[in-house]
Design brief:
The structure is a single chain. This protein has 479 residues and is an alpha/beta fold. Helix content is 37%, strand content 11%. It contains 16 helices and twelve strands. The chain has a four-stranded mixed sheet with strand order 2-1-3-11, with helices on both faces. It has a four-stranded mixed sheet with strand order 5-8-4-9. It has a two-stranded antiparallel ribbon with strand order 6-7. Strand 1 (65-71), helix 2 and strand 2 form a beta-alpha-beta unit. Helix 9 (251-261) crosses helix 15. The longest helix is centred in the last third of the chain and has 19 residues, at 457-475. The protein is globular. It starts with a helix and ends with a helix.
C-alpha cells in the first residue's frame, strides 16, 4: 500500500504547475522552575559587587536540537552567512543570541533543484524521515501532498498577531482541514496588475498618467480599462490592421485576474469541512468570462503574430506595440525593465462591477511540518521558528521594502500608490484555491485560452463542467 501511495502521489505531482517562486513571539510556556524562590537583588548602597545580578528569563530549553528548513533556492547558516547590510548583520547576531538562549540551532538549506525537491518531499515523509522539520512548497505541491495527510496539524495560537510577525493569513486559512491549519507563510503578495505604456496613451489623446489618476479616484474599473484599450488600438497606416494594440497579454493569467477582480474564482473552499467547491457557475464568474470575451470581440487584444510564439506579449509590450499588459508585480525590473525606451506605469487590475475595491489573487509558497513529528515536537519547532524570524525593532520600518521597489519601477506612483496599497491591504487578496486541487486544474487549456480566443463562454463552461466536477470530486475523496 505504501508503494502504491508513493507512486500515486508522484504521478499527481508530475502534473503540477509552479505558480509561486519566494518571530518574536509569545508562548504559553511558564518560566523554567529552578527550584529556588526568586528574590529581589539585595540593596547595599552603591556597591554593585554586593548586588545579585538579574538573570535573563528562560522561557524554554529546546535541548540542543537542530532544526532544518528545506527549500530549493538558498542556504542560511550562522556559521557561513556574510551580512552585507546593517540589518543583515543585526539579524545574524539576533539569531545567534536566541539560539543560545533557548538552546537550539536552526538553518535553511537548499535540498535540491525545484523538481528534485518536489519529488523528494513525499518520498521522505512516507519513508518516515525526520531530517527536515519545515518544508517550503509551491501551492500545487502542498495541495497534492496534503490530500495524502502528509503534514502535521498546527495551532492557531502559533500565528497570533502578538508575535509581531507578518503571517500570510490566506495561506493559513487555505491549509485548513476541519478548521485546523496545516501550513503557513509570512509576508505579503502584492498581487497582479496592469502595466501601461505612457507614450502610447498620450499619442492616443489620453493623459499619460490616466490609469494612476483613475485608480486614485476609485474609478479604475472594467469600463475604464475598456475605454483606454479602445483609444490605444490604432490603425495608423489605414490598412485595416492596428499598428498599436490596447492589450498584449497572457490570456489565462488575464482571466485569473479578471475573475478575482469581480470576487469570483474557479474553485471555492469550505475550511470547516475541508471540501473544495465548484464555483464556476456564480454570477460573478460568468460576468468575468463575458467581459474577457468582449475584449476579444472589440478587437483590442493583440493576437499572436506568426512566428513569435506564445510569449509574444513580452516583446510586444516592451517594444511599444501594445499599451497595456496584465501581469504579476514580480515582472517589474525583470520582464518589464525600468529602462525601457518608453515610460511606463503599474496599477492594480481594474475592479469588476460586483467589487467595491480592487481585488486580486495571490499565493505564497506553503510551509508545513511533516506528519512524522509529534505534537510536542511541532510545538518546539514553531517556537524556534518564531524566534528565528521575529521582527527586529531597530529595523521595523514597514516601508523598508520600497527601496527595492523603486529600483524596479519607472514611475514612483507605481510604488507610492499601487504597491503600497497592495501591501497595506492584505484583505484585498484571496488565495487561488484551484492550485490546491491535487494534480492541478486545467484552467488554461479548458477556459483561459479558449475564452481569450473569442469562443462563446457559455458553451465552453458547459463543456468543462463535467470534467471540473470530476477533478473536485477526486480532490474531496468522493471518487
Amino acid at each position: 500500500m505504501k508503494k502504491f501511495s508513493i507512486l500515486a502521489i508522484m504521478g499527481l505531482l508530475g502534473l503540477g504547475v509552479l505558480v509561486a517562486c519566494g518571530g518574536g513571539g509569545g508562548t504559553n510556556e511558564p518560566a523554567a522552575d529552578t527550584g529556588q524562590e526568586q528574590q529581589p537583588p539585595a540593596q547595599t548602597g552603591n556597591d554593585a559587587a554586593d548586588q545579585t545580578p538579574a538573570q535573563p528569563e528562560v522561557l524554554r530549553d529546546l535541548g540542543g536540537q537542530h532544526i532544518l528548513i528545506g527549500n530549493w533556492w538558498s542556504y542560511w547558516h550562522v556559521d557561513t552567512f556574510e551580512p552585507q547590510t546593517e540589518e543583515a548583520e543585526d539579524r545574524l547576531f539576533d539569531r545567534i543570541e536566541v539560539m543560545e538562549r533557548y538552546n537550539f540551532t536552526m538553518e535553511e538549506r537548499r535540498m535540491g533543484g525545484w523538481g528534485e525537491v518536489r519529488d523528494m518531499i513525499p518520498l521522505q515523509i512516507m519513508a518516515g524521515s525526520r531530517e527536515v522539520h519545515i518544508w517550503h512548497m509551491a501551492p500545487d505541491w502542498f495541495g497534492t501532498m496534503h490530500a495524502q495527510g502528509l503534514f502535521a496539524p498546527l495551532l492557531d495560537e502559533y500565528f497570533d498577531a502578538a508575535t509581531g510577525i507578518n503571517w500570510h493569513r490566506n495561506t493559513i486559512d487555505a491549509s485548513r482541514r476541519g478548521g485546523v491549519p496545516h501550513a503557513f507563510a509570512t509576508g505579503v503578495v502584492p498581487g497582479g496588475g496592469v502595466y501601461f505604456n505612457m507614450r502610447l496613451l498620450e499619442e492616443a489623446g489620453l493623459d499619460p498618467e490616466l490609469p494612476f489618476d483613475l485608480q486614485l479616484a476609485g474609478e479604475w474599473t472594467w469600463d475604464a480599462f475598456m475605454d483606454v484599450a479602445r483609444a490605444a488600438t490604432r490603425d495608423l497606416t489605414g490598412d485595416g490592421i492596428p499598428d498599436t494594440w490596447g492589450i498584449a497579454t497572457f490570456g489565462a493569467q488575464f482571466l485569473e485576474m479578471a475573475l478575482a477582480s469581480n470576487g469570483a474564482e474557479p474553485v471555492g473552499f469550505d475550511a470547516s469541512t475541508g471540501r473544495f467547491l465548484n464555483t464556476t457557475n456564480t454570477p460573478e464568474f460568468l460576468e468575468a468570462l463575458a467581459w474577457a470575451n468582449a475584449l476579444s470581440e472589440e478587437g483590442v487584444t493583440m493576437p499572436e503574430p506568426e512566428g513569435m510564439g506564445w510569449d509574444f506579449f513580452l516583446p510586444a509590450f516592451n517594444n511599444g506595440m501594445a499599451a497595456m499588459r496584465a501581469a504579476g508585480d514580480y515582472v517589474a525590473g525583470a520582464q518589464v525593465n525600468p529602462n525601457l525606451a518608453d515610460p511606463w506605469g503599474f496599477v492594480t487590475f481594474p475592479r469588476g462591477p460586483r467589487a467595491a475595491t480592487p481585488l486580486f489573487q495571490g499565493n505564497m509558497n506553503f510551509q508545513a511540518i511533516p506528519v512524522n513529528f509529534s505534537a510536542e515536537e511541532v510545538d518546539d519547532v514553531m517556537f524556534a521558528l518564531r524566534q528565528w524570524i521575529r521582527p527586529l525593532p531597530a529595523h521595523d520600518d514597514p516601508l523598508a521594502w520600497t527601496a527595492g521597489a523603486f529600483a524596479s519601477h519607472y514611475h514612483p506612483r507605481s510604488v507610492n500608490e499601487t504597491m503600497i496599497m497592495f501591501t497595506r491591504n492584505p484583505a484585498l487578496s484571496s488565495p487561488l484555491y484551484m492550485w490546491l486541487i491535487p494534480g492541478g486544474m486545467p484552467f488554461g487549456p479548458e477556459l483561459g485560452w479558449r475564452i481569450w480566443s473569442g469562443n462563446d463562454p457559455a458553451v465552453i463552461l458547459e463543456e468543462a463542467q463535467p470534467r471540473w466536477d470530476e477533478y473536485i470530486a477526486r480532490a474531496n475523496g468522493d471518487v
